[in-house]
Specification:
Blueprint (H helix, E strand, L loop, with lengths): L15 H6 L1 H20 L5 H24 L4 H23 L5 H25 L8 H19 L5 H32 L1
Helix pairs in contact: 2-3, 2-7, 3-4, 4-5, 5-6, 6-7
Length: 193
């Protein structure tokens, strides 16, 4: 005997429905990450102060969109991880913006820690929706790349600001492409609902 789906969107998961509804915010986060990566690669000779401001702006904007996606979500369970990741991003951006004189080493370790936290929560979110969508590997891969790159930055911060800048650009582009791909999958679920 089949039961009717009680959710108004037609999606069974309390986590998938809000994500599908907010697919555009996730896609926008991905596009912003791609643009940030292109800027880092196109102008690798930029001063470290500019990198700090770019990182601060990216982290704050990324955090705001993550919090917005969490706040506009459905139940409390699907929202907490988006809100927590968003608040961590906003905090990272504000600290970088108000303390631009921080040493390169401290900044890089801080960026690495933020990337690890962000990646872990993306992986957790993907695992939570794995039964509801196909190929959630895009979000898992994006989270894993974030964790691995964050660990690399923490372990090898002395690799030079220029090398780190190029690596951050490449990471941002890859993570942005993964987010856009995930958002497009969510869009298909939203359209079906």
């Amino acid at each position: 005997m089949a039961f009717a789906d009680p959710s108004p969107t037609g999606l069974r998961s309390p986590l998938l429905a809000p994500l599908a509804r907010n697919w555009g915010l996730i896609a926008l986060r991905g596009v912003l990450a791609i643009l940030f990566g292109i800027i880092c690669i196109a102008w690798p000779g930029m001063a470290l102060a500019t990198l700090i401001w770019l990182f601060a702006a990216f982290a704050i904007v990324d955090g705001v969109f993550s919090v917005a996606a969490g706040v506009t979500g459905g139940t409390m369970m699907p929202r907490w991880w988006l809100i927590l990741v968003g608040l961590a991003g906003i905090a990272a951006g504000l600290i970088a913006a108000f303390n631009p004189g921080a040493t390169t080493l401290v900044l890089l370790v801080f960026i690495g820690a933020w990337l690890v936290v962000r990646g872990v929560f993306e992986i957790m979110g993907a695992i939570a929706v794995r039964r509801e969508i196909d190929n959630e590997w895009m979000l898992i891969l994006g989270g894993a790349i974030s964790v691995l790159f964050g660990l690399y930055v923490i372990i090898f911060p002395g690799g030079g600001a220029l090398a780190i800048l190029l690596a951050i650009g490449i990471f941002a582009i890859i993570a942005g492409v993964m987010m856009v791909g995930f958002a497009l999958r969510l869009r298909r679920h939203h359209v079906r609902a």
